[in-house]
Write a structure and sequence with these properties.
The chain crosses the membrane at residues 20-41, 67-90, 102-122, 134-157. Keywords: Membrane, Transmembrane, Transmembrane helix. This is DUF1440 domain-containing protein. This protein is mostly helical and 167 residues long. The chain has one domain. Helices cover 76% and strands 0% of the residues. It has helices at residues 3-6, 15-42, 46-58, 66-91, 102-124, 134-166. Helix 2 (15-42) runs antiparallel to helix 6, helix 4 crosses helix 6 (134-166) and helix 5 crosses helix 6. The chain starts with a helix and ends with a helix.
Length: 167
């Protein structure tokens, strides 16, 4: 399967549709990875993973917040995914180096997302502190590179390559 056939849904895209697709794909892949990794490391079920995301805003009590915190965690998760998609979409035509090696730039963008989340956003949030784990760190970096940054970059590049062919 080629890059062009994987992301064929972007063939008749608008900027909004492209951002919606890239944010959705990255958000879903990130959520699936999170569920798997947090089950392995912490024995969390999928609902607990979403509640854990909600702790960023609501603190530790979100873990006991039931469906309300599950919905809140889902919303916060996708807000972040869409924010990443929007940032990349608007930077892509303005920063020529993003167009030099789309795969590498997507991987670097994903690493940047992980760094911003783990060094700025999470420490400033209400997520309960946990001890450093090198295995979780490496897995988190790789999953954000491959399952968040890369799909956003590929979908965005597909949109702009179509747009360039039409001009």
């Amino acid at each position: 399967m080629t890059n062009s056939s994987i992301f064929n849904f972007t063939k008749s895209s608008s900027p909004i549709k492209t951002i919606l697709w890239s944010g959705l794909v990255a958000g879903v892949l990130d959520a699936v990875a999170g569920v798997i990794v947090y089950f392995i490391f912490f024995k969390f079920n999928p609902f607990q993973v979403l509640q854990f995301i909600a702790t960023g805003v609501h603190g530790a009590e979100a873990m006991n917040g039931g469906i309300t915190m599950i919905i809140a965690g889902t919303i916060y998760h996708f807000i972040i995914a869409y924010a990443c998609a929007i940032v990349y979409f608007f930077l892509y035509p303005r920063l020529a180096f993003l167009r030099t090696n789309i795969t590498l730039m997507g991987l670097i963008f994903g690493l940047g997302i992980w760094l911003v989340m783990n060094l700025i956003v999470i420490p400033l949030s209400n997520v309960p502190e946990s001890p450093f784990d090198i295995n979780l760190t490496i897995i988190g970096m790789v999953w954000h590179m491959t399952l968040v940054g890369l799909p956003i970059a590929l979908i965005t590049a597909k949109y702009f390559s179509k747009e360039e062919r039409q001009n």
